[in-house]
Amino acid sequence: MFSMNQLSPTITDMIRFDHSHVMVTFHQYTKDKSPSVKKALADTICTALEIHATLEEEVFYPVMRQLDKGEPFVHKAEPEHNDMRRLIAELRRTSASDPRHDKVLLELMRDVIHHVADEETTLLPQAETLMSKARLSELGSQMTKRRMELVAPKAGKLAKSHAVGFSGSTTAMVVGGLSALLALRTLVKKPGGASSNTHTWANANSTPHAS
């Protein structure tokens, strides 16, 4: 029987998209940006990571623990999230005019990149092996519903931070395009149709780079 859940992107594709969004935002953080733009970009990254971590912990990780109790990454993932939350709290307390702001952001992103690499090369492929496409889409639908609940109270702040952080940047078009494609995919995917799990995410530099 056809279910509306089949129209949803899979949970693994949604997780990959979240990773890409954070990386694209980070690549706009250059040392020549003004403090207001740096803070807006940092806020966008922090909020995206907080929402993403909550979604994984509430929707994705519990399912993976049930399916494969011996998978080591799923057991260390939440402690890694907590380490990121500690750095996020420190980053929020730090003025963008303070040189430490750059250092804390880079430390956070090093942890994020390590976490993403483990997740995309271990946990996501494992999920796609253990679960059917229908089940992955069902979980994707659950994640979308929960995401809307988490984003709603922060929508105004997110929009403002995004507008300031990406002002005058062509990358804003990239992020908007990715979001539009994801939304379009949700609307037009045919039941039982194939979808690609191909994804890319760029490595970050070890220091803020000039435009």
Automatic annotation (TrEMBL):
Residue numbers spanned by region Disordered: 192-211
Composition-biased stretches (Polar residues): 194-211
Domain Hemerythrin-like: 10-127
Source taxon at top rank: Bacteria
InterPro entries: Hemerythrin-like (IPR012312)
Protein name per Swiss-Prot or TrEMBL: Hemerythrin domain-containing protein
Record organism: Massilia suwonensis
Lineage start: Bacteria, Pseudomonadati, Pseudomonadota, Betaproteobacteria, Burkholderiales
